[in-house]
Amino acid sequence: MIMATSLGYIESQVFPRVRNSVPTRAAEIFENCFSDTLQSTVTVDENDSAFMVTGDISAMWLRDSTWQLYPYLRFLNADKHLQRLVAQVSRRQQAYVLIDPYANAFNPASNAAGHQDDHTMMSPWIWERKYEVDSLCAPIYLAYALWSRTGETSHLHDFEQVLQTILTVWRIEQHHDAQSTYLFERDHPFKPSDTLGRNGKGPESGFTGMTWSAFRPSDDATAYGYNIPDNAYAVLVLRHAAAIVHEVHHNEALQQQALELADEIEQGILTHGIVSVPGIGDIYAYEVDGLGNSILMDDANLPSLLSLPFLGWDIDDDTYRRTREYILSPSNPFWYEGACAQGIGSPHTPENYVWPIALSIQGLTSNDAGEREQILKTLSQTDAGTGLMHESFDVNDSQSYTRPWFSWANAMFCEFVLNYSGFDAD
Question: Residue 422's domain spans which residues?
Fold first, then answer.
């Protein structure tokens, strides 16, 4: 791998402040994780774009690569090397969207690596073609983050075309059963959630105004096609995109299209995505189908219900507060408690395994100093001596974990530590 940026500013300005703000072990893990992304995950090509592996899988996920860079965004104006790196990754993400907006993970070249035997419209560029709404949110989010913080526009050359492509897909997927041609089936899936039912068509849905997703941010199939965290994320990035095309491209028609779709999706969430739970009140569902069905849970991946204020969703604080209490309790079927940790896990990983990503987001969305301190302690004591975060670990034995190298988890830990240390929020 090519180290895409120096560590000079980080080592001289960031590390010392963190060391003075958190316990020694937390600071050691932070420095290891914060350096790892820059030193080990990025390869820059001759076209001034950058391929970013997710970790121990040699592919670039649109979603993961955005969150992998998230903790660095606050330093863009202080470190021009970081600014250039984010622009390089953003250009690569946008190029991938134009190759196939239904794909979630890509190869560094047209080398036919990955799941080429899946029954869907694969190409040699694609590692995996699981359609996920958040995979299209991520490139907009990163492009906006760079532009809004620095004024940089070199990465926005193709942004109008990228946005129009995304708008077209999300409009089609508002009417998935009637209009979409997307199909996905995997022979001999490792688990049932690795493929779609109904001959690859996926879960049936009625119109809600939201946009349908085949898979969750975990890459697991949705139970019901309208994933609420994904749609909330879409509302946010559509408004970001509208600002870009208005200010940079002066494209008022495209701006209006983005804003209109954002309003429709938001209204769909408020109308169909909130359910009443006896004894608790109104909370956000995790998924609904527009046909009267919903699922009450939260998943450890990002976006999640837990992460809504982290993403910028603040429509109804009382509804979020009740939702948070619900999902951080045994009411959530993926809440686990054990001898060394308690937190949110995922159907993507074994039972009783919690995710450092979810623990970090819990800390980032908490106003309770004691809760935040306990989460930092838990994360610092459950790395199994590796100096890195993992995808998940057993709540009763942190030596048992999944994925030895998962850069997204490293990034979310770093974001929590920076927040805990008093660095300005993103």
Answer: 7-40+334-426
